[in-house]
Each structure stands twice: as structure tokens, then as C-alpha cells.
Specification:
The structure holds two protein chains of two kinds.
Chain A lengths: L13 H22 L3 E8 L5 H11 L1 E8 L2 H9 L8 E5 L3 H6 L19 H4 L5 E2 L2 E2 L2 E13 L23 E4 L2 H11 L11 H14 L3 E5 L1 H9 L5 E6 H9 L4 E4 L5 E10 L6 H12 L1 H8 L11 H10 L1 H6 L10 H6 L3 E3 L8 H13 L1
Helix pairs in contact in A: 10-11, 11-12
Chain B lengths: L4 H10 L2 H37 L3 E3 L2 E3 L5 H7 L2 H35 L2 H12 L6 H12 L4 H8 L11 H25 L3 H9 L4 H12 L1 H16 L3 H5 L8 H10 L4 H26 L6
Antiparallel strand pairs in B: 1-2
The chains are: A alpha/beta, B mainly alpha.
Chain lengths: 378, 300
């Protein structure tokens, strides 16, 4: 039997020294990797983009940690950037229509188009998305999109009725029509209902007055104005049976939970929300942010984005769509992301039934905001 | 330790009334200083800044220092501002009346009808709701007030309803009551418990009926505490954002919601400051009016 000796007095053999030394050298990279503090990436985005279901895999693989700051609405995003020193945000997720304002204010860095998979995009229009390029230079990279239309409770409104915004005025849903509390999508829908089609954002004085009158006529039907949580809850518990200003990005989550709700693009047309990544001006982490954007455009990233827990979106790349069909055909089918389906989002865009969300052209955002406050008080 | 006679005499000479007064004044000031500094740093300075901010302007989502009346003219000239103002005052007043009325019987019982020990426990239990977040308490009302919620389910058994309670003014009042009722009951209880019972007993002995005793003896004697409770209830309801937004459905918006809307749209902090200043002025008037009424001498 071996006698116990103090570890301090024990003299290791040459073989032991070599074995321990070798093991230490081999494990050093892992130790330093594990001990190195992760690089913090400051993200400004809509809720959900910095959550584990989206970023945890990238964080683990690249030893980074996202520090998200969430906003709701483009105005809110611009305000937060404007009030922060340059370089505060490394990566900014912007609504497509606000990219040009970010660029005009000098809040974002130029991107190298060669770094991103433009050839893989599902639709040619997305390669030159409005506002993302200026003087041939790329400033923002589109990563996902979704459609807004009529969101409804299937027990209260039929699929046929939901094919027109007129279902919001249905007497049976009086007091049960909700609004997502942001003027842009709701007023855009009213403009579409008024027949403004592709010119829904470019309204003359008389057209704008008509949109206001149409919107005010909906007021008796309205049961409330809600933020994300309120919209979600009121549709889920049946308090609201139709919702103006949203789409599958909210009903999709509820539908997956078994709620009898859905969203369609009505005959008057729908609105597209577009989300794009930008690199914040003055960011010292531009390289790793570029890698993250590339990751989000990879098939794996596109699947994560399409199935985002907070709110689903459509894939924008062919390989992303193919991967989604491969890993979750049911979700791909539910959202029409299979070639040949009637509600394929790309088909809807090509048919001209979808209009990209924009800011008012002839009026100021302030005019629309003012009217929205008036409408809420009417 | 014995003190020599000479030293005692000298100490007495030093402690002249004038010196004592100046000593007291210095001591008083020293005691007051922290609260003065605190108020100056965290109340008066921000308040001044808020007033100044209401004259700033916003350019490209960035606030710029200026002295322009634009924001005041804009907000004061809008009907929706005055509608919100009227609604907020109306709802806060209604909540105050309802809460004060509902709280009084409970406070009266706790003050006069139960033992000291029971009262202590009751006050403790009334404090417990404040242990949880107000927002959580408000969200829990969703389950109770929804069309498919607890109340409508119970009413359904007797063939009534369903009634719409969420996203209504009723919902807002329920929310305000959640916020203020426990506090008002505590304040009313403390106020009533301090009444000299012999006066109440004397009224009874002299043949005063119970209701008359309440109105002629109890209420006047507890006036200060009751008015302070009402002022608190009004202030908390007037400035609450959560209830009118989540239980009232923001339909129509109250002033706190208008502040959020104004900031959200175009980062109009200066216009939001205008709303906030108007709210502050209103609350100052209510608070000073309330306190003046509370401490007003009784006129026979």
C-alpha cells in the first residue's frame, strides 16, 4: 500500500511533469477563451431581436454578449439615437422607412455590399430597397419583413369579410376593434381603404382630409389603443375581435398557441414592414457586427428570424426559405413561404397588393401624429 | 463627575437666552439642511428644468435650447389637450369620491369597532398590496374583468352579462382604486382612531343619533386626516398612467398618456413638458387648497 505523502513534499517524476505540462499547454486556449470577458455589443432594436432565441448561438460561438435597448416605432428609435453620444449603439435594427433619416443624420456607417448575399435574395426589389442605398453606397441591410392587413378573430369575422378593411365597421364588432397605438400603420390602412393604392403615403390635401374623415368614422367601433402587450392580450382573451395596424407578426404568435385569430392581406392591399440592420456610426465593433448581420442572413439566421419568439417575420433569402421549409414545413406553410402558395408574401408583393411602409410625403409626421391624438380623443 | 461651582456658574453665564436662541437656530438649520438640499436637488431643480424645457424646440429629433412659446401655443390650442385635461380631472375626482366613500365604513369600523390588536393586523394587511408591483396588480385585473373573466363567469350563472369592463372608464376607476384604496383606508383609520372617544360618547349620551354623530362629531374632528387622504387619492389618480392605459384602453387618453404619446411621436419632450407643467400647477392648486381646507380653523 502506498503511503500518503504531503502534496508539497511529493516530488513528481519526469513523466508526470511532461504529462501535466502538456495538458496545461493544450488546454490554455480553452482556458483563456473561457476566461476572456465577452465583448459587449450594444444593440438598438424592436423587442425580441436581442433575446436568446435569436442571439445566444452567435454569442456562444463568438464570445460576445448583446446588450439590447428596445424601442417601439421609428420615431422612438431616432429619438434614442439622437440623445445618445456617437458610438453608443454598435448595431441598429431600423424599420426600412427610417433608414434614410438615420443616414441623413449621419448615425450609421457605410456597408460593403460585397459582404452580403444579395444574389440569394428572394426578390429583386429587396436588393435595392428604397432608402438603403445613397449615391450607389449601401447603408443598411434588409434582414426580414412582414405584412400588415386585417387581423381578426375567426369566430367573429369570416375569412371573406376579412378580405376588406370594411369588416372593421361591421356592427357586430362595435367596441371590439382595437388599434396598435402607432399612427403610421393604422392611417396607412385607412388610406388604402380610401382607394389610394400605391399612393397611400403621398396624399394631397383633399385625400388627407378624406383619410381623416374615414378614420374618424371608425371611432365608434374602437375598443382601445394598445401597445404590443395590450394588443397581444386583448386579441388573446377575445376583448378585441379585429385589430387595425398589425399583421401576422402578432397573430402568428397567438395562432401558434391555438387562438382563433389570423391575418390576411385584404383586397385594398396591405402594408409591408421591413427590418434592416445598420452599423452604428463610430462603433468600434463594426467587424463583429458585420459578422452578426451575415449570420442573420445565413440560412440558420433566417430561420431564427422567421420563427422569432417575440414576433415572426418572413425570410428574405432563397436559402433561408429553403432551410425554413426543411426544418419547419408547418410554419413555412402557415405563413405562405412555399413557392406556389396563393399567399406567398413574395407573390403578393409582385402582384402589387403590398406597399412598403413609408412616412407621409406631402404632410409631416407631426401632422399625422397630431391627427392621431385628435382621433384618440374623438 | 462632580462639577465645580465656578464652572457651573460660568456655564450659566454663557447660556444667556440670546446665545441659546442662536444655538438653537444653528442646530435647527443643521437639521433642516439635508431636506433643503434634497428638495433643491431633486425637486426644485428638475421642476425648473422642466419649465425651461417647455420653451425648448426639437430639431431632427434632438432637443435644442431656446425660448419660444411655440410648444405652449401648440398644446394650448389643441382641443384634444383640453379634452384630456377635463377627462383626467373628472376621472381623478370620481375616483376620489368613490374611494373616500368606500374607504370610510372600513376605516370607521377599524377605528371604533374593533380591538387595538385587530386594527394593527388590519393596517398590516392593508400594507401588503404595496409589496407587489402595481403593474402586476393591474394585469391581474385582466383575468377578473375580461369578458370571459371571473366576474362575468359568476354573473353568467345567474343569467346576467357578459358585461364589458376592460378598456372602459369603469376599468380605469378599478385601477385607480387598486392604487389608492389601501392607502386611503390606512390614512382614514389613523385619523379616526385619534379622535377623543369621550366626545363621541358624550354625543351619544346626549341623545345624538349615530348618523348625526358621524356627521357632526366624527367627520369634523377627523377633517384634517380625511382631507389629506382625499388629496393623496386625487394626486395619485391624476398622475397615473398604468390604469387608464391598461384597464381603460387609452380611450380616450388621460394627460399622463398624452405625455407618453407626445414623447413617442417625434420625441417632443418640450411639448410633453408643457403637459407636465399644467399637471403640476393643477396638483399644486389641489394640494394647497386641500391643505388649507384641512387646517382651516373651524368657524361656528
Amino acid at each position: 500500500m502506498k503511503t500518503k505523502g504531503s502534496i508539497l513534499t511529493h516530488k513528481p517524476s519526469r513523466r508526470q511533469v511532461l504529462a501535466y505540462g502538456g495538458a496545461t499547454m493544450l488546454s490554455t486556449p480553452f482556458i483563456s477563451r473561457a476566461w476572456a470577458a465577452p465583448v459587449e455589443i450594444n444593440m438598438l432594436a424592436w423587442y425580441g431581436h436581442g433575446e436568446p432565441d435569436i442571439v445566444s448561438e452567435f454569442e456562444a460561438a463568438n464570445n460576445v454578449k448583446f446588450k439590447p435597448k428596445y424601442y417601439a416605432g421609428g420615431d422612438n428609435m431616432l429619438g434614442l439615437i439622437a440623445q445618445s453620444p456617437p458610438g453608443t449603439y454598435d448595431v441598429i435594427l431600423s424599420d426600412g422607412e427610417f433608414v434614410q433619416q438615420l443616414n441623413a443624420a449621419g448615425y450609421i456607417e457605410e456597408l460593403n455590399a460585397a459582404d452580403y448575399p444579395f444574389d440569394d435574395m428572394l426578390y429583386g426589389d429587396f436588393q435595392k430597397f428604397p432608402g438603403h442605398w445613397k449615391d450607389g453606397k449601401l447603408y443598411s441591410m434588409m434582414v426580414r419583413f412582414g405584412h400588415l392587413g386585417v387581423s381578426y378573430n375567426k369566430n367573429a369575422i369570416s375569412a371573406e369579410e376579412a378580405m376588406s378593411y370594411s369588416c372593421f365597421w361591421k356592427p357586430e364588432v362595435k367596441g371590439k376593434v382595437g388599434h396598435f397605438d402607432w399612427h403610421l400603420p393604422s392611417l396607412g390602412m385607412m388610406s388604402l381603404y380610401d382607394g389610394n393604392g400605391a399612393g397611400l403615403w403621398d396624399l394631397s390635401g383633399s385625400q388627407w382630409k378624406k383619410v381623416q374623415a374615414t378614420t374618424l368614422s371608425l371611432r365608434p367601433q374602437v375598443g382601445g389603443y394598445f401597445d404590443y402587450g395590450g394588443t397581444f392580450n386583448s386579441l388573446k382573451n377575445g376583448e378585441m375581435q379585429a385589430m387595425c395596424g398589425i399583421g401576422d407578426w402578432i397573430t402568428g404568435v397567438l395562432e401558434k398557441d391555438g387562438a382563433p385569430v389570423g391575418s390576411v392581406v385584404p383586397k385594398e392591399g396591405g402594408i409591408q414592414w421591413t427590418e434592416s440592420y445598420c452599423i452604428g456610426k463610430g462603433s468600434e465593433k463594426a467587424e463583429i457586427v458585420k459578422k452578426f448581420i451575415q449570420y442573420m442572413l445565413s440560412p440558420a439566421g433566417q430561420v431564427k428570424s422567421a420563427k422569432m419568439a417575440a414576433y415572426p417575420g418572413f425570410a428574405i433569402t432563397k436559402s433561408g426559405r429553403a432551410k425554413l421549409i426543411e426544418v419547419d414545413r408547418k410554419e413555412a406553410k402557415r405563413t405562405g413561404q412555399i413557392d406556389g402558395m396563393a399567399n406567398d408574401p413574395i407573390t403578393l408583393v409582385k402582384e402589387g397588393r403590398i406597399h412598403y411602409r413609408n412616412i407621409p410625403v406631402q404632410q409631416s409626421l407631426e401632422d399625422w401624429n397630431d391627427f392621431w391624438s385628435e382621433y384618440k380623443n374623438a | 463627575m462632580p462639577v465645580s461651582g465656578k464652572r457651573t456658574q460660568s456655564a450659566l453665564v454663557e447660556t444667556t437666552p440670546k446665545r441659546l436662541l442662536s444655538h438653537l437656530l444653528t442646530f435647527k438649520n443643521a437639521v433642516r439642511l439635508p431636506i433643503i438640499i434634497w428638495q433643491a436637488l431633486f425637486f426644485i431643480a428638475p421642476l425648473m428644468f422642466m419649465v425651461a424645457m417647455s420653451f425648448f424646440i426639437v430639431r431632427n429629433y434632438r432637443m435644442t435650447e431656446a425660448f419660444e412659446m411655440k410648444n405652449w401655443l401648440k398644446m394650448m390650442g389643441r382641443d384634444y389637450f383640453w379634452d384630456s385635461y377635463g377627462l383626467t380631472i373628472g376621472l381623478a375626482t370620481l375616483a376620489t369620491l368613490v374611494v373616500m366613500t368606500v374607504a370610510f365604513p372600513a376605516a370607521y369600523t377599524l377605528a371604533f369597532k374593533v380591538s387595538e390588536n385587530t386594527r394593527r393586523w388590519a393596517v398590516f394587511l392593508l400594507i401588503i398590496p404595496f409589496f407587489t408591483s402595481y403593474l402586476v396588480r393591474i394585469f391581474s385585473w385582466y383575468v377578473i374583468l375580461a369578458e370571459s373573466g371571473v366576474i362575468n363567469a359568476m354573473l353568467g350563472y345567474i343569467g346576467l352579462g357578459p358585461y364589458i369592463m376592460l378598456n372602459t372608464k369603469f376599468g380605469t376607476i378599478v385601477g385607480y382604486m387598486t392604487l389608492t384604496l389601501p392607502l386611503v383606508i390606512i390614512l382614514q383609520t389613523l385619523s379616526l382612531a385619534n379622535i377623543d372617544r369621550s366626545l363621541v360618547e358624550a354625543a351619544h349620551n346626549l341623545g345624538c343619533r349615530p348618523w348625526r354623530t358621524v356627521f357632526r362629531i366624527v367627520l369634523p374632528l377627523a377633517r384634517t386626516g380625511l382631507i389629506i387622504a382625499a388629496v393623496f387619492c386625487f394626486i395619485l389618480s391624476f398622475g397615473d398612467f398604468v390604469s387608464p392605459y391598461y384597464l381603460g384602453g387609452s380611450k380616450p387618453p388621460t394627460l399622463p398618456i398624452l405625455i407618453v404619446d407626445t414623447v413617442k411621436s417625434g420625441q417632443q419632450w418640450p411639448r410633453a413638458a408643457v403637459v407636465a407643467v399644467v399637471m403640476m400647477v393643477t396638483l399644486f392648486i389641489v394640494a394647497f387648497g386641500g391643505i388649507a381646507a384641512a387646517y382651516r380653523r373651524r368657524v361656528r
